[in-house]
Amino acid sequence: xxxxxxxxxxxxxxxxxxxxxxxxxxxxxxxxxxxxxxxxxxxxxxxxxxxxxxxxxxxxxxxxxxxxxxxxxxxxxxxxxxxxxxxxxxxxxxxxxxxxxxxxxxxxxxxxxxxxxxxxxxxxxxxxxxxxxxxxxxxxxxxxxxxxxxxxxxxxxxxxxxxxxxxxxxxxxxxxxxxxxxxxxxxxxxxxxxxxxxxxxxxxxxxxxxxxxxxxxxxxxxxxxxxxxxxxxxxxxxxxxxxxxxxxxxxxxxxxxxxxxxxxxxxxxxxxxxxxxxxxxxxxxxxxxxxxxxxxxxxxxxxxxxxxxxxxxxxxxxxxxxxxxxxxxxxxxxxxxxxxxxxxxxxxxxxxxxxxxxxxxxxxxxxxxxxxxxxxxxxxxxxxxxxxxxxxxxxxxxxxxxxxxxxxxxxxxxxxxxxxxxxxxxxxxxxxxxxxxxxxxxxxxxxxxxxxxxxxxxxxxxxxxxxxxxxxxxxxxxxxxxxxxxxxxxxxxxxxxxxxxxxxxxxxxxxxxxxxxxxxxxxxxxxxxxxxxxxxxxxxxxxxxxxxxxxxxxxxxxxxxxxxxxxxxxxxxxxxxxxxxxxxxxxxx
Length: 589
Ligand code: ARG
Prior knowledge:
The chain is of the alpha/beta class. About 55% of the residues lie in helices and about 10% in strands.
């Protein structure tokens, strides 16, 4: 289904074309003065410039055509030549019925026939997930839901960090402690134990210790480097140990993402492209794209028009180890082969922008993207503590996702109690509601900022039931559910055909009909905050409608049934958009 704005722009564009102007000038937008008009088109101004005439004259000619179209109730010229438009109530009601009858609620087809690989999450094996990974997961998941709703075929990949120095650090730490000697015995032939010698908890203790040891002692760092190189070169014992790290981490991560309602199609990692790396390097060397530089192998990516010097992408270090950029480049080769995507979108911290610029340029120079695949980095800012620095625990450590969710859930439970909500529900249900509210608070707070901005973590604000928060919107949805429930119990039906009477009803319909526009804007800008703005405004407009009108107590059956239809559609749209943001609505609160 196309958006109302697109439909109106089509009509006004045709009118401009009939006057001999480009139809693009007919672009219609929501009026910024809703008290004067619902929509406006300012195309007469540039048209007048082109034709060197008076804009009001052109606007008048276009308006004359538009007045002949029964969709418009009023077409007026304002100021120097703005065209103000109001629609007939019947036209609005008709479009509302079409939207309500559409199971997908006006889903766009912007992605029909197109495939995108979405790279988000990006946690590192053995290292705890931090708030940056949380942002990537929340934003990436929302984009995956939105793109799917818009018709895209999506392949999401968590792209585990499992091939870097931290793996060598862990291996050598375990070697030092003598924890699992069999993996270090060069004489060992035959299989290794199926059971991991380390648990997730062990890894959480081992990695910081290993990392501290490497910082304190250059010899230990050297050992870790060489263990990394040996692992990558295929030393059997190290590979077996590494596989245990990956398996153990993956189990833990699946649980953590699961608790946020986030799923991935692929659980690949940096290491999964290992077999492609050798041939890729040969290919790049043979075509002169990769060159030696100070003992390392690099791909120069600087361009003459660069404002800042872009260093080359390092493929292989002097000790033979490959790097983050190498696996990312090989991953492009892999994804293009496997999925022939139109787009590979990386939802990764903005601070990695240069890295992606290097990788993308190398991929394009090498022709690895074919003529179809677009590469794009959708960066995001940091979640900061009250001190304006990346959020940490009270003790100054990395905040673990698990603890963060627990904190949010506790806070939500407090808020519910304060508000007297869910107090007499069974314990299990109350806990479940608190969890949903806590997660909604975290997700909505994150998504409602433009992804590139930093924001301050403030759980007390995020969990409020008033203002622009996830819990406010959940509560709005629950209230609509309960109105509809009561109506059903009373035997009141929603109208199949609505008849509008009041400005509040009109405003509500206009906002409902703006859904496809919000969805296409959010896709276009990779910006879930557009959906947050949309849905918050919808809830506010609904509130005004609800305060000004009787519904259950309305005695006129016609008015009542129209209003119930509006409540039903508002709930459907609200739930849909919350779904795109990954926010669950409890059955009651
Ligand atoms: N593991 C990386 C990190 O923690 C993020 C991975 C992002 N994805 C990618 N293809 N590089 O910073």
